[in-house]
Amino acid sequence: MAVKPIVVYPDPILKQVCAPVQAIDDEIKELIEDLVDTMHAGPGSVGVAAPQIGVSRRVCVIDVSKNRHGKENNHGLLLMINPEILAKSGGAVMREGCMSVPDYTGDVERATELTLRFTEPDGNVREFEASGFEAVAIQHEMDHLDGFLFLDRIASLKTGLFRRKSYK
Predict the structure, then answer these.
(1) What span, in angstroms and rounded, lies between the C-alpha atoms of 3 and 59?
(2) What is the DSSP letter of 73?
(3) Which of 44, 48, 113, 132 is most deeply buried (CB count within 10 A of its CB)?
């Protein structure tokens, strides 16, 4: 549908817990299309959550298949409504960036294996396991739905936060 402008920190919507989607109507389907278009337009983006385009709803999209870290292990384009993590395990520290925090990246520890459940735009409930970079990306986008940024997950702002050299 449309590429939407990205909301940038410290906009207060980024710190809000998003409302669950009660019904999948045309408005939600249009939101999902806007999220996909915005993700594809973003430099190196592998996901976008609704609050990042100014909508406080529990919707996000993820696709790590074109990223070098996710090429070999992914579920393709994920259109997630009301996602929830059922289980997680493992752990790794990875460098994360975010379109809503364009000037910085940071080292964040995340689970490396997830069991996830969400509703798809057609109303089907999907449950599956994700691992590696895809699991990290899912957690990053789901954090947006709960009012968290990767900045909130950095163990040490002194040693784990880095000014971005370029945004590609």
Answers:
(1) 16
(2) S
(3) 48
Domains (ranges, CATH) in the chain? 12-163 (3.90.45.10)
69 is in an annotated binding site: no
Q: Determine if residue 18 is labeled as part of a ligand binding site.
A: no
* Neighbouring residues of 104: CB distance < 8 A, sequence distance ≥ 6: 97, 151, 161, 162, 163, 164
Question: Among 72, 109, 134, 141, which one carries the catalytic annotation?
Answer: 141
- Judge whether 141 counts as a catalytic residue: yes
Can you give the pLDDT of all 168 residues of the chain as single tens digits?
A: 799 999 999 999 999 999 999 999 999 999 999 999 999 999 889 999 999 999 999 999 999 999 999 999 999 999 999 999 999 999 999 999 999 999 999 999 999 999 999 999 999 999 999 999 999 999 999 999 999 999 999 978 888 999 987 655
